[in-house]
Amino acid sequence: MSSHPAIPFELRGRFCGFIRTLLGKRRMVLRVDKEEHFLKVEKELRHRLKTALAPGAEVLVLGHERAGDRKRVIDEVKLVTADGLVACAVCPIRVCNKKNCWRNGGKELWDALEDTLARQGLTGTIPLEGAHCLDHCKRGPNAEWRGHDFHHCTPRDAERIVGKATES
Question: Where are the domains positioned within the chain?
């Protein structure tokens, strides 16, 4: 364990991709104005970001810098849309697609979420994925985003769910 404190940082710029350093370390390249930053991304997050980010995407990067070695480590990456909305780059909205939830309105909720994401220009920015079960069967249809559970959902709840996913 390092005795040096972690200093939080926040950078907003364009995602350029992932590279390998001369020492073989993988780093995310972020262009802020005319300067490039090479940031460490933990393996699991890096794999998730590879499919979620396209080069040129505007992102907000949150992380910490280890004071002793000045290494910047990314904790979270958020996409910035053309409208200025910020959304988690790898946090899908999950909808229960188990038989009872799906029959009791889950399909209509899914369709409303797709429509809301499209209308707000967030298709492809906030992933929508089916979940076999969210463990609240008697409170369905259910949806979830980053630990926020939504129960007894109707299509009218799509705006609220997407709104939660775009909060800063």
Answer: 6-87, 91-165
